[in-house]
Amino acid sequence: MHIDLKGRTALVTGSTQGIGAAIATGLARSGARVAVNGRSTGRVRRSAAAIEHEVPGADVVPVAADVTTEAGAEQVAEALGRRVDILVNNLGVFGSADPLEITDDEWRRYFEVNVLAAVRLTRLFLPGMTERGWGRVQYLASDSAIVTPAEMIHYGMSKTALLAVSRGFAKQAAGTGVTVNSVVAGPTHTGGVEDFVHELVGRDLPWDEAQRAFMREHRPQSLLRRLIEPEEIANMVVYLSSDQASATTGGALRVDGGYVDSILP
Fold first, then answer.
1. What b/e readout covers 195-205, taking b as 16+ CB neighbours within 10 angstroms?
2. Where are the domains of the chain?
3. Which of 10, 29, 33, 120 lies deepest, with the highest CB count within 10 Å?
4. Residue 260 predicted with pLDDT over 90
5. Which of 139, 155, 239, 259 is catalytic?
6. Residues 251, 265: contact at Cβ < 8 Å?
7. Are strands 86-89 and 60-64 parallel, antiparallel or unpaired?
8. Catalytic annotation on 155?
């Protein structure tokens, strides 16, 4: 299958590292003009340069802005001429906490960063997509949206909310040529997850041993029996961004290594 995204502009939030960086690279490799986003100007520029190095000739636009604020979202919109064809809402925070110790402010922070920022950007860019008759909106959800870990209730709540947001906006875009989906990512190997794994199983273990212990003790449902690589998540996002995925909308597509014990998507 050849995916050609030439002529499309993509925005990937939180794309200076991890899954977001892999998605931005995958979209650039398929020919899209890609906006790399994060709060730090330096990190955004370095990430854009890394993509240009890996994908010669890539059209990468560094856009440093805090999209968790209205001003930051508007800044991104202005930088891209208020036109985005592929919106990938990847930005998110996560961490473990005693459920009874999570403060009101922390509950609000998880909602505002993981959910409201995505809703705000969808409001900004979905109308233009529907007017043009083509567009792709995606939300990076998580297995925690369905199988909520006891140590990450606040995170799971925010990802469950994204599934509802995605389905609702898919209905809003019905019949317009715009598809809206969420991607349910399983336990994935990123720098932040490495810290999380060591936090749960101990910092003295070598990485390979720590990963095995984490999967065995904390994610035994995984059929993959290893952490997913960011590029494996990106492959699904790139496909959903393509013309080939034109009949896939309103869905929650799983790239979870079989973690969620369900025969339905």
1. ebbbeebeeee
2. 9-188+229-248, 189-227
3. 10
4. yes
5. 155
6. yes
7. unpaired
8. yes
